[in-house]
Amino acid sequence: MEDVVDRWSESFGEFPPIGSFCRDELPARWLRIHSLPASKRYPGTEPEYRELLRRHNEVATTLLGDGDSCILFAATSDDDPPPSLAGLTFVEVPDLSALQIHIAAAQVPWKPGRFDALIRAVADETAGPFLFANFERRTAYAPYDGGADLFLASPDEVVTMKARWSAWLSARPDGL
């Protein structure tokens, strides 16, 4: 974990691992998917939660790899301790913190379904922000309450994934 700052900087840049920062700094590598059909923001039924989890697990597994080692970053404010997730120990990463935001990190393998409770909590606005990064692939997945911001290794990969997940994208010209 001691080289997480250097590895983040090499793969993404000199800014915190928070989806909104990444979107601003890496627009050519960014793609946003929506969690539900017709860009519905919040799930209200179990079938909608199942669709949300299906989409998130598909994009995250594509970006992060099934079983690949990732860093799970969590952002907290000055008043909040690092998050507590079952079986994970977060370590504060001071060099990646910004403003009044603290960044904590935990090394995890990405497995589809393993983080469903976290994804659901983010969708319900009871947790977050979180970002998963795979430094080997130079990719990141940042769920938010209406979908996920995806950061790919290159603009060419963005084009490929836009075609793959075209039904899950915003109709807005700015992609939000």
Brief summary of the model shown:
By secondary structure, the chain is of the alpha+beta class. It is 30% helix and 23% strand.
What's the main sheet like? Answer: 7 strands, antiparallel
N-to-C CA distance? 33 Å
Strand order of the largest sheet: 1-7-6-5-2-4-3
Shape: globular
Number of helices: 5
Low-confidence stretches: none
Strand content: 15-25%
Gyration radius, in Å: 15 Å
Number of strands: 7
Question: What letter string, H or E per element, gives the SSE order?
Answer: HHEHEEEHEEEH
Helix/sheet category: alpha+beta
Helix content: 25-40%
Query: Could you tell me the mean pLDDT?
Result: 89
Features:
about 180 residues; 5 helices; alpha+beta; globular
Detailed description of the structure:
The chain has 176 residues and is an alpha+beta fold. Helices cover 30% and strands 23% of the residues. It contains five helices and seven strands; from the N terminus they run ααβαβββαβββα. It has helices at 4-11, 19-25, 46-64, 116-123, 155-164; strands spanning 30-34, 69-77, 91-92, 101-109, 130-134, 139-144, 147-151. The protein has a seven-stranded antiparallel beta sheet, sandwiched between helices. The radius of gyration is 15 Å and the shape is globular.
